Amino acid sequence: MTETKQLQPQDVLAMAESLRPQLGSGFRDEIVQSMYTEAQRIVDRAVNKGSKKKWDLDQRIDRLVTSPIFGLPIMLLILAAVFWITIVGANVPSQMLATGLFWIEEQAANLFTSIGIPWWITGFIWHGVYRGLAWVISVMLPPMAIFFPVFTILEDLGYLPRVAFNLDWMFKKAGAHGKQALTMAMGFGCNAAGVVATRVIDSPRERLIAILTNNFVPCNGRFPTLIMLATVFVAASFPPVFSSFVAAGTVVGVVLIGVFFTMLMSWILSRTVLKGEASAFTLELPPYRRPSIGRILYTSIIDRTIFVLWRAILTAAPAGAAIWILGNINIQGVSLAQLIANFLDPLGFLIGLDGVILLAYIIAIPANEIVVPTMMMVYMGVGMMTDPPSYSQLHTLLVDGHGWTMLTAVNLMLFSLLHNPCATTIMTIYKETKSKKWAALSVVITLGTAFIVTFLTATIARLAGWV
Amino acid sequence: MEGSFWILLILLVVFIVAVFFLPRYGILSRWQHYQKSVEREALEDALKYIFDQEQQGHYVHQDALRGALEISAKRIYSLLDQMESQGLIQHEQSQIILTENGEKLALQIVRAHRLWERYLADEARLPLNKVHSVAHRREHGMSSTQIEELDAALGHPLADPHGDPIPNAAGIFRPHEKGTNLNHWEENTPGKIIHLEDEPPLAFAQILATGLKLGQTIRILEKNNQRIVLTDGENEFTLAPAVAANVFLQELSETDQALRDAIPLTALKGTQPAEIVQLDERCQGFTRRRFLDLGLTPGTTIYAELENAFGDPRAYRVRGTLIALRKDQADDIWVKPLPQA
Hints:
The complex is a heterodimer of chains A (467) and B (341). Chain A has 467 residues and is mostly helical. Chain A has helices at residues 9-23, 27-46, 53-65, 71-114, 119-157, 159-173, 180-189, 191-197, 204-213, 223-234, 240-271, 293-328, 336-350, 355-363, 371-380, 391-402, 406-418, 423-433, 436-463, and strands at 283-285, 330-331, 334-335.
């Protein structure tokens, strides 16, 4: 055996260090170029290019959907259609689910009572935890199970990158990425899913912007609240013929306000906290493809719907428990919920709301679906989450019974739009960014905006003597 | 009633004491931490300044250092004392000289600063005139492991975005060419800008304001004591000789020659096909990697296919796929128009 000096790792490193200056700066480029040259050689030999026909069709569709005249209308039309299908399609299954799930609750509660289990155990388990779960599932599941597959079809078709292409000029001005339009659209379904969807944005800075501002898009947990308020308060002051148009117009208006705040916040973020983060814009426009149904069902049901639903269930059960406890523990004949609401009243007044609404929002941090039922529970003085009565009764209950005004309704809509993300979304932001700092920031900026905006509208309305 | 008052009072006192004196999170320890970091920053800035002056062959006096750091006379004494006790500097008569350790530390800070500049320009795509000040804030308090990680993440760059060399971990500058000062460049000989000195900032701002860029090919049209007029073939740039002393040129290499009749991708009209000549030097880091990933390598055929209603972004057909690029990015891709197929 010959005596050779053992090569030590540090020797190799030292050698690499000494050789590095000779490489020049472009050696990475050369590596990539040689790889592409080789790939091209193989392609030229092995791939038989088909006819140019499909290409021409693709180009024609591209010209149409990105044209200055038709591009925007087509986009709005498709978006409106998606909403219409979701809302109309989810109505019946939602009610069926609610009927079924609440029937189970009633039967189970009766069973518990009949075998002599104390009322508070029955109440806590069935009217608290179970009711919270049932509520979230029946409100959340049907719209998501419709919205996500429809959205995935558009994704699969290849239409969505064209939307990003069309709208990029707007996002560029705000320092954001065109693909944020897609994650925002996803946010209509669920903000947590919207946050996950920001993975399509490959540039770190723009991705963080999209994550932090996604909550300014109202998700389907908040839409029912907006629709209810728009119908009961805004539309009610118009003749019945127009009322449904006015209600729809109001909801669209609220969404546009959300878009405005998204842009404003993106602009501010990209120029302040996110200034030093990495950034780049490239957008691939894939060829149009026929969607594959199996994959769509898989990604939209398993990846999105079940994923979001599971997280919501995890947070809704404790919320249901908390609501039941607050509604059923009485101190000197007044429920804990009412007491806390009274305590929060001054703060609520300051921003044009009241203590009950703030309480509902605090309890509903896990899931926005239960804001209205919780409010109804306290307003009507019952011990569990309750459906609002018919719209005219609701109007009487809120206005005559609890001093609501137009300002309360408008500010509640604004607060619902701008306030902090639900627990599921906050958890998702933490998981996606792997940083408590960004998760906390997402709460601070949204809650801060909500308080400032509602405080301003309340103050202005009061100074101007509108209320 | 009496009892609860005392309990509340005690709780309040405990709370206030905790807020002030809690280790790590208390206001007091945060303030101390902040003070320490301010001191460390001043020390590092002082080291860098002395090192810089020594590199240029000047010796540093106390007053000059105080002026450069903009701190009070009292603080400069304590700072110098501290540096001397740590064995970073020596006094020789009234001159301040770095010890070996001091030089080592100074080099590490220079390294951190230039790596940060590289990161900010390449990855964060910060405008070049903002890079220096942000890097200046971030360079402090980095451990050598952190610096190594930054270096590795950037792919061991040789020079900062102004063209200044980055010393390696052992504190050795890698060999690099500084080029020829614009004042000494011959008229009408084309040259490539390889270095723009960023100090003093005023002169650097003037250079940037004219639109001159690193990697640009220029030649001198006119040169006298008042001004130097340059051209890149399209635009003319006028500089005062004092400012021109901060611009350094190098002779053109082969690829630079090829680049001379190339146009930026944005200047391509209609569906005119073109061949990619090169990605611009200033396009580095994340964007460059993305471009290479997408197959935008020299020699590739590219043409514009789809334009946004607002003209930006534009989608280009490359290797059979359609890729949308914003204007400021497409500007970094140099192409040579091909005859229409």
